[in-house]
């Protein structure tokens, strides 16, 4: 594959992403269901590509882009680092603590119950299914297309050559479940009085519907921390992210060559970026890193990853695994609905629905889906969901990274019960902690007050 082939592939992707945005802006049906333009573009390209009509001149390697883009995305997460606000934590420990526990449980329940169901049920009905099959559901649902690409790549390196397509399918179904399921529960919530900050869909802003921001409501994408006369600020931020990505890939290869431990490239890029963040903050370089610019680069990589992830799905693999995949996806949907409707009100006191619907969206796709659902029901973040999510992120990330990096090896190499056991213990610990600290509010009415009314 030549450099020109890469350019052509991304040019085609860009054209269809632009078409997807145009459809989002002009077609009411698309607006009604909040379908992301990159997902629309991916489905069109899938139909017109090698798996469909075969009229798009894609190179043979478009399936490899996702595993490369995810390295850049995780590097961006690490470069942006984390922060703590001890004062808010002390003043609002009940709200933050219970939400943190709920968010961890939402992840642990997928990491444990989906593989458990796969091993005990699916692998018995379909003996050719390996014990890692269930983790592909969690990678797609809880992780989105980016993590699906990373975990799929890890499975492929361990010999499961169909894993990437299955993971991408799970991620696609997950996002659709998040969008359609989220809208269903929001409509139900408005009728039942669960929502505290909206009364109906007529309150949704136009920029959420069509994706176009009016002139008087536009915000800056970021600050110019480097003089453009010396170096373009975008080039500076991209350079920092690419440095972390390159070092991460080099470390991954070096560790494998030295001791045979096959750590994912994206994990090492993330860890490298975290180290860079800490060093930058210490020496003052962090003052010249703008989180919004890094976030925009990561967001761009994510949109292209979603496109290539869907466009490169091998339909023959999906047909091959249709029955076990259908069972696995049904299991995943049951898990996320139970997490929303049972644990949501049990583990969140004020504004339980707003906080739980965000986690529902986050647990079926990506942060953006959760954010869209939250903006519909709580456009001003009065439930403080985003604040608490930012606080919880540094503590929930290790549990995620362990699952994505060690899960494939443990599930395929005979340590499956140990892996499942770890997350069953975490899940049980979350429930026990909430009961012990009296953060268990299942008996309260579902139309209870919002966060600011409880205090």
TrEMBL record:
UniProt-recorded Gene Ontology molecular function terms: glutamate:sodium symporter activity
Gene Ontology BP terms: L-glutamate transmembrane transport
Record's GO cellular component terms: membrane
Transmembrane feature ranges: 6-23, 35-56, 62-83, 104-126, 132-154, 166-186, 234-251, 263-281, 301-319, 326-344, 356-377, 419-441
InterPro entries cross-referenced by the UniProt entry: GltS
Domain of life: Bacteria
Keywords: Membrane, Transmembrane, Transmembrane helix
PANTHER family noted in UniProt: SLR0625 PROTEIN, SODIUM_GLUTAMATE SYMPORTER
Protein name: Sodium:glutamate symporter
């Amino acid at each position: 594959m030549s450099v020109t082939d890469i350019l052509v592939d991304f040019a085609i992707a860009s054209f269809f992403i632009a078409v997807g945005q145009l459809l989002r802006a002009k077609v009411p049906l698309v607006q009604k269901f909040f379908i992301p333009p990159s997902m629309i573009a991916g489905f069109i390209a899938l139909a017109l590509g090698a798996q469909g009509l075969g009229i798009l001149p894609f190179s043979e390697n478009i399936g490899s882009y996702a595993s490369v883009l995810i390295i850049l995305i995780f590097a961006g997460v690490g470069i942006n680092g984390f922060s703590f606000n001890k004062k808010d934590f002390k003043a609002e420990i009940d709200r933050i603590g219970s939400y943190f526990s709920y968010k961890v449980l939402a992840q642990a329940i997928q990491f444990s119950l989906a593989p458990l169901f796969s091993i005990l049920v699916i692998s018995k009905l379909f003996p050719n299914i390996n014990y890692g099959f269930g983790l592909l559901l969690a990678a797609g649902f809880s992780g989105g297309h980016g993590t699906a690409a990373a975990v799929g790549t890890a499975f492929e390196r361990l010999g499961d050559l169909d894993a990437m397509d299955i993971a991408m399918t799970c991620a696609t179904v997950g996002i659709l479940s998040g969008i359609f399921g989220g809208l269903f529960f929001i409509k139900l919530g408005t009728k039942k009085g669960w929502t505290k900050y909206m009364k109906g869909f007529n309150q949704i802003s136009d920029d959420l519907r069509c994706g176009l921001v009016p002139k008087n409501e536009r915000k800056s994408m970021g600050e110019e921390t480097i003089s453009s006369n010396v170096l373009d600020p975008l080039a500076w931020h991209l350079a920092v992210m690419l440095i972390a990505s390159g070092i991460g890939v080099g470390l991954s290869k070096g560790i494998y060559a030295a001791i045979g431990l096959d750590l994912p490239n994206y994990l090492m890029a993330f860890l490298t970026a975290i180290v860079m963040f800490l060093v930058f903050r210490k020496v003052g370089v962090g003052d010249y890193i703008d989180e919004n610019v890094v976030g925009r680069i990561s967001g761009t990589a994510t949109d292209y990853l979603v496109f290539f992830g869907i466009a490169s799905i091998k339909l023959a693999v999906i047909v091959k695994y249709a029955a076990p995949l259908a069972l696995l996806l049904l299991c995943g949907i049951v898990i996320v609905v139970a997490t929303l409707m049972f644990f949501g009100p049990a583990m969140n006191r004020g504004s339980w629905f707003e906080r739980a619907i965000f986690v529902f969206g986050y647990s079926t796709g990506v942060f953006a889906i959760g954010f869209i659902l939250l903006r519909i029901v709580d456009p001003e973040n009065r439930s403080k969901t985003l604040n608490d999510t930012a606080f919880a992120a540094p503590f929930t990330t290790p549990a995620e990274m362990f699952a994505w990096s060690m899960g494939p090896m443990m599930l395929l190499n005979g340590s499956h019960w140990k892996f499942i056991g770890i997350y069953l213990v975490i899940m049980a610990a979350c429930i026990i902690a909430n009961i012990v600290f009296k953060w268990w509010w299942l008996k309260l009415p579902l139309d209870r007050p919002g966060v600011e009314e409880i205090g």
